[in-house]
Request: fold
Amino acid sequence: MASDLPTTTAEITATELADIIAELQQYRDRLVHDTTDAIHKARLPKAKALAQLEPELLKIDAMMQDLHDRHAALIASN
Reply:
């Protein structure tokens, strides 16, 4: 998803960036929800399974922080 982003902030509008942030947040929420459901159905230890998911969530959170920073920079430059 993030690889589809333009490399410079001049190539994307603040509205487009806000939409991308919202989509990434929805993906993160769905990933956590679906994983939690699967853990419950499989009767696995929740803490252990979520710990395995943590590295992916950290990557998503880092991408979202970068996007928020880019969005703030776009807003400030206008």
About this structure: The radius of gyration is 16 Å.
